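Entry 0007
Protein: Sigma-70 family RNA polymerase sigma factor
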Amino acid sequence: MSDNMKHSLNPNKWIVLYADYLYNYAITRVDDQDVAKDLVQETFFSGIKGKDNFRGQAAERTWLVSILKRKIIDHYRKVNSAKGQKEVRMNFYEEGKKKGNWIEEKVPQAWGNDAEKKIENSELKDALDACINNLPEKYRMVFLLKTVQKYETEEICNELGITASNLWVIIHRARMQLRNCMEENWFKQ
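Output (structure tokens):
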């Protein structure tokens, strides 16, 4: 795009052009159909309300997705802000040959290309999705934002009002719970 070409908004066509895309984007991040629909509706409303702030530097869909991302973060911030929630404690292996805690070098690393091929296996994907959905809400939220959606640590911490060290403790505990769940539901089959 040249420097002098500006994008424009056409709110009358948003539902036809972008509703399905935005819904699919939202549902993969919140895993609740009603919440995803509400977030898309709020995105459209905020877009109309803030259309005078649109500078035309991004495509219309890109601009709406950026609004939706903020709505998703706001949703998780609201979920997380319930004061007095007990933090679920992670039970590490206390007996047997797996006894003890993981040392830093042994923490699970990001999966490589081979794992992406295995993810195509629908049974593995179903088992992994079930394990992720069984995580406590706070763990699931932080895990998905950081590991799946690749949000920056600082952005997650600012939005959720947690420290970086707390974020990494949550990520570690979520991974440990996912590991245990996958061992029980996938690898022992």
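Curator remark: The two ends are 53 Å apart (CA to CA). Residues 164-187 form the longest helix (24 residues).
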